[in-house]
Amino acid sequence: MKILIVTGIVPPDIGGPATYVPLIAGALASRGHQVKVLTTSEPQDLSLDDSRYPFRVIRVNRRQPLWRRTLTLIRLIIRHGREADAIYANGMHFETALANKFLRKPLVMKIVGDEAWERATREGWTKDGFEEFQSKRQPWPAELNKWQRAWATGQADRVIVPSRYLKRIVTQWGIPEERCAVVYNAVEIPEEAKPERTPPTTPVKLITVGRLVPWKHIDKVIESLAHLKDVGLVVVGDGPDRQRLEALASTFGINGRVHFAGQRSKKETLALMAACDIFVLNSSYEGLPHVVVEAIQLGLPVIATAVGGTPEVVQDGETGLLVQPGDSEALREALRRLVTDISLRQRLAHKARAVLYKFRFETMVNETEQILTKTIRTGDNERRTGANS
User: Fold this and answer.
1) CATH topology of domain 2-187+360-388
2) DSSP secondary structure string for all residues of 209-230
3) Phi-psi region for residue 142, left (φ > 0), alpha (ψ -120 to 50) or beta?
């Protein structure tokens, strides 16, 4: 089958979709499917050599005016979607839904979070947490975004989510449960993921990975670090919170123990993770984070917040440590326990590997391929039925 995958980010961007899309596109291509990936990129990345991929990559300048970018994406989705048997949207859901009003192709969407809440938080339209945002009335710009994401998602024939938690959220948007399938994320750790020496030069190193945005609460990890001796922190990622976080580390007098590595390639990120001792994710909002599974595969013990789909990966006290979001004291205690107890770190990391069977790469590819194939067949049957009626 011919598949057009639409996404907001691919490498050298970092993030869940940037990890997932090349993996699933490459796997589908290796099974004989013709795959194209349409994405947005930074201006300096538009001319990158993507010949290393077994699929074609079409890049659109994400820094052009929004109206122009939207029209460009719709035009290109229509152009490349005409020859596709199915469209698989991993981002740009609204643009894809609009374009598919013209194409009427079988459409599968992957939802990994709520872009409406993310934007409302960034723009200051809401102070509500993720759960409260779903049910509470919001200012009109946020309500418009809520309607937009619900409408776009509703245009999909099937919706894939990476956790049972997100399935519950998406059904609240009006998506019938039978159209929503849970397919757990999987990751592959390349053999070249060798530890990369990095500052700080402390006996124990923590690492956190992700966009530097308020809901990641990296500030609380930095505050906890101020109460721990001989412990360093590596922060991988970039975003609007970076300057504030750097200033906070300086305020606590621990800037020498906090290394902001910036945005890194997937290979570099995995190498940095492999060089550290403990992985920390203090987010108040997650679908099901790829990076937690990556940390487990690399043998790192995990401390994370009990939000979203994370508890479907980490069982508190058995395969990692879970803390409640916003509980700084619990975070500090969890860090202290793992920093001082090497045997606990080893036990948690060892037991965590047993949960990886749920996140096998072949399982993820098989289930995704089956959904795409079934959606195409269902769409073909409906078109034939409509033509004969």
Assistant:
1) Rossmann fold (3.40.50)
2) ES---GGG-HHHHHHHHTTSTT
3) alpha
pLDDT of 267 > 90? The answer is no
What single-letter amino acid sits at 376? I
* Cα gap 195→8, rounded to integer Å: 29
pLDDT of res. 387: 40
**pTM value?**
0.86
Q: Decide which of 1.20.1730.10, 3.40.50.2000, 3.40.30.10, 2.60.120.10 is the CATH code for 204-359.
A: 3.40.50.2000
Distance CA 29, CA 129 (A): 39
pLDDT for position 192:
62
Residue ranges of domains in the chain: 2-187+360-388, 204-359
The whole-angstrom separation of Cα 357 and Cα 355 is: 5
**Intrachain domains 2-187+360-388 and 204-359 with the same fold:** yes
Angle 309-170-114 from CA coordinates, rounded to 5°: 70
pLDDT, tens digit, for every residue of 9-45? Answer: 999 987 788 889 999 999 999 999 999 999 999 999 9
Spell out a b/e string for 176-202, using b for 16 or more CB atoms within 10 Å of the CB, else e.
Answer: eeeebbbbbbbbeeeeebeebebebeb
> In whole angstroms, what is the distance from residue 290 CA to residue 310 CA?
10
The Cα-based distances of 35 to 5, 30, 41, 87, 374 in angstroms read: 7, 10, 19, 10, 17
